[in-house]
Amino acid sequence: MKANVGRETIYLYLVQISNIILPLVLVPYLAHVLGVEFFGKLSYAQAISYIAIFFVDFGFNFSAARNIGIDTNNNKNISRIYSNVQVIKSLIFIAVVLLGIAFVLLSNQSIIDKKLTILGVLSASSSILMPAWLFQGLGRNSNVAFLNFASRLLSLLLIVLFVKNQEDLIIAAICQLFSPVLAGVGMQMIILKNKVVDFTFSHISFEDIKILSRDSFHNFSASFLTLGFTYFNPIIIKVFLGDSVLGVYSFADKLANVLRQLYIPLVQANFSRVCSLFHEQKYSTLKNMFIKIAYVFLGISLFAYISNYFLGEVVINLFFSEGEGVSTLLRVMIFTQFIIAISMILVNLIVIPAGQSYYLKKVYLFAVIFYFSIIYPMIKWGGVYGVAISISLVELLIVCLFFKFIKKKKILI
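^ Putative O-antigen transporter, sequence as received from the core. Prediction below:
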């Protein structure tokens, strides 16, 4: 049964505020004790982790969540979906680990980078242990949020206690990358204790695996095209500009991502309800909901931009030696985050719930072609600022294409 949307939203924001405060403490601390170069290396490990998790997720975060959100009272169907999705994810995880090991053995990376690569790949097990898509479909995202908060808090405490200088980089990586894994273990215990869903081999069938994989492939293949201008950005910066520049970029990026933590709960809390409203064809209600969410996102973004403009450099200089560079990057990144927020409404709350996921691939294909056509000259022109501006241009193109598609298909009419 679906949880109350208003209550879920409040719970999510309370936890999300805590999740915002923790990085604001952790990021300056790590940048200070590790230094800009080794902070860049840690960011590389996180990029590897994000990429590995992306493959293991395989788009199920939306396709499987949508299937569950349509009928949350059918426990047998929910267990069937859960069992088959977990099997698929486990097989993908094994393949990702093997590919990661092969890459490390064949590459000429430094020893420390090889260790960070392996840690990043192994941390993708969190995608299996923490079935966020299940609770998103059930409209019970607060369960996931509270566990993630607890694991992040523990990670922060361990880092403060044991990470004191550059030699503790691996400890820092373990504490950060494996906090979601710990949260996933806790979630599995809750699932078993409360019998949220049943994982049974009798539910597993080749036909279901094929159907679920095919449905999810639209989301996965579309999102795969976004890797170039999302998770691969730190790797591109590391290759062309070095670890030190990556450290500056990552510091700014992590601060900018705080905004996304404010956007996500409102989208997650309404996803299950939006699926039902599309199923019931209540388009007027949907339009009003989307307009209200967009205004909330605009207010958050304006506040962040003004705050950074007047106070950003001064505050950042208290913790990080590159305050001016980070503040300048943030001006671009805050604008980008607002564009991404609008994209989240268009994709997560309109295109996917309306069953139009097939179009994602077309949009992201245009976007990735555009990105790779401009990224090299933009790096040569503006260095790390060129990278940030490139991402803004790409995200703006994506929003324009989705607006055009929704209007052309009359999805909300």
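The chain has one domain: 5-409.
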